[in-house]
Structure formats: structure tokens, C-alpha cells
């Protein structure tokens, strides 16, 4: 999969490779330190942030915590039919 910015795709591939090695050879064997890929991750993250800015996407909106807040979108209420089906299951 390509990155949001084409110029970031190679950095993404490098990070993905590093992460996969770290996960298989370190994390799954109990070494949970993540510093192995920090440098490439920072380069990739900065590249993606620059690409996002060029597309006029507000970075503050991306960094905003929404889950569990009043801004989180809730699923629509169940339809009457779904409510009846659930009630029938519990009866």
C-alpha cells in the first residue's frame, strides 16, 4: 500500500520492514523496547505530516482525541425490528 504522499512510500516500506522484524524478533520474544525503528518512524511521520499539510488537512483535527469524548459519533439507534429481534432472543 502506498503512503498518503507518494514521496513517503519508500519510507513507509522501510518502516514496515523494520517493524515486522522488530515484532517477530524482539517483541514476540519479550523485548518490548521499540527504539529499533524510532529513527525511520520519525522520518516517515514527518514526511506524512508534510504531505497532509500540502493537501490542506488540519493536523490538529488528526491529533484530536475523539474516542470516548462528546465528539465521538455514536452509531444510529437500532431500528424497531432489531429491537424486537433482540427482545425475542432474551425471552
Automatic annotation (TrEMBL):
Compositional bias per record (Low complexity), positions renumbered to this chain: 79-91
PROSITE patterns the record matches: CHCH (PS51808)
GO biological process: phospholipid translocation
InterPro entries: MDM35_apoptosis (IPR007918)
Pfam families given in the database record: UPF0203
Disordered as annotated region, ranges: 64-91
GO cellular-component term (any): nucleus
GO MF annotation list: phosphatidic acid transfer activity
Keywords: Disulfide bond
Reaction catalysed by this enzyme: a 1,2-diacyl-sn-glycero-3-phosphate(in) = a 1,2-diacyl-sn-glycero-3-phosphate(out)
Biased composition (Basic and acidic residues): 64-74
Entry's family note: Belongs to the TRIAP1/MDM35 family.
PANTHER family cross-referenced by the UniProt entry: TP53-REGULATED INHIBITOR OF APOPTOSIS 1 (PTHR46403)
Protein name, as recorded: TP53-regulated inhibitor of apoptosis 1
Organism field: Dermatophagoides farinae
Taxonomic classification: Eukaryota, Metazoa, Ecdysozoa, Arthropoda, Chelicerata
This protein's encoding gene: TRIAP1
Amino acid at each position: 500500500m502506498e503512503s498518503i504522499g507518494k514521496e513517503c512510500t519508500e519510507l513507509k516500506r522501510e518502516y514496515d520492514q523494520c517493524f515486522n522484524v522488530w515484532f517477530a524478533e524482539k517483541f514476540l520474544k519479550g523485548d518490548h523496547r521499540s527504539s529499533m525503528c524510532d529513527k525511520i518512524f520519525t522520518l516517515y511521520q514527518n514526511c506524512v505530516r508534510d504531505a497532509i499539510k500540502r493537501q490542506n488537512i488540519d493536523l490538529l483535527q488528526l491529533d484530536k482525541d475523539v474516542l470516548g469524548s462528546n465528539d465521538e459519533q455514536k452509531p444510529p439507534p437500532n431500528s424497531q425490528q432489531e429491537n424486537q429481534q433482540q427482545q425475542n432472543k432474551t425471552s
